[in-house]
Amino acid sequence: MQLHFLDALSIPGHPAKPNDDAWGQTAGAAVVLDGATNLSESLVPGESDAAWLARFAARRLMAHCNDGAHVRDALKHALADAERSFHGLRRRPPKRNHENPYASMMLVGARAGGFEALWFGDCAALVKRPGEAAEIVGEAFDKRAAEAKRVKMLADAKGLAPAAAAARPQFLSALRAARDTVNTEKGGWLFGPDTKAAEHVRAKAVAAPPGTLVLLASDGFLALACDYGAYDAESLVAAAHDKGLEALGAELRAIESGDAEGRKFPRFKTSDDATAVLLRLS
After folding, report:
1. Is 168 helix (H, G, I), strand (E, B) or coil?
2. Sheet arrangement for strand 213-217
3. 123: domain range?
4. Residue 99 falls within a domain, yes or no?
5. Phi and psi of 117, rounded to 5°?
6. Quick one: pLDDT at residue 70?
7. pLDDT in tens, 3-42
8. Is 120 a member of any domain?
9. Please, which pLDDT band fits residue 217 given cuts at 50, 70 and 90?
């Protein structure tokens, strides 16, 4: 089985800020990564630590997959690469865990009869087999619902509009406290400069015939369905195929511009980085 490329989109949440998302694709594998927004000063050169990690991970994952490695082995190698590179590039060791770069990830590798999916965090794969309902691989929809509730609770407690410019500093301590638990026993696991993360990746073998559409996406793109209700999983894949991802990106930004402070759809930023890759199994 192979992954035939159909379309891709990756747009920053704000034109003046770096795009912390990244993606990569070969005939045998594809990945979408969503770098976690920096909550402190950058430790490595470049636009942001999150952007560095997401782009580095996409390149190394696809390189290892191209070398014939199974996706699980490719992940282990890429995590080891990230650990070595971060240690070599960083200006100083992190003082707290939230200073480490992290990224959500959805990685798929073609195999006989379908593909294998590995993921961290809230990236997802939407799978549309011919003649069947779309399947959601990953926990993005549930995680986004929980995130919206958390945002609203924090905003209500401080009497602020969630996505207003003045709100971000007010939420910083809570965001850092939550990030401090990442890749520990208290928190969830993400792609980062830590080889142990490979032991905690979520995985699923997905049976799918030729002709199956697979939409890999970061949570910023999935917001069209799981946050804003413009689509469900089924119609989002259909729209990606029929309208194209660029049109969906414009639709996404129009919805967010109409609710810039996040009062209707609670969120920490008016717009998040949004990335999607549409593939067909062949």
Report:
1. helix
2. 3-11, 274-281, 213-217, 124-128, 135-137
3. 3-139+190-261+270-281
4. yes
5. -115, 135
6. 92
7. 999 999 999 999 999 999 999 999 999 999 999 999 999 9
8. yes
9. very high
13 in Cβ contact with 272 (< 8 Å): yes
- Going from the C-alpha of 273 to that of each of 13, 80, 162, 200, 250, the distances in angstroms are 4, 26, 17, 25, 13
Residues 120, 225: Cα–Cα separation, whole Å: 20
Exposed, middle or buried, 242 (CB in 10 Å: 0-12/13-18/19+)? exposed
Reported pTM:
0.93
> Is residue 230, in this structure, part of any structural domain at all?
yes
Q: Picking from 7-16, 136-145, 164-173, 182-191, which range would have the lowest pLDDT averaged per residue?
A: 164-173
CA distance 282 to 167: 47
Domain count for the chain, please give it. 1
Which segments within the chain are labelled E, that is strand? 3-11, 21-25, 29-35, 103-111, 114-120, 124-128, 135-137, 202-207, 213-217, 274-281
The CATH code of the domain that includes 110 is 3.60.40.10
Predicted pLDDT at 166: 47
Task: Mark 26-41 as b/e (b = at least 16 C-beta within 10 Å).
Answer: bebbbbbbbbbbbbee
Q: Enumerate residues 6+ apart whose C-beta is below 8 A from 175.
A: 39, 98, 268
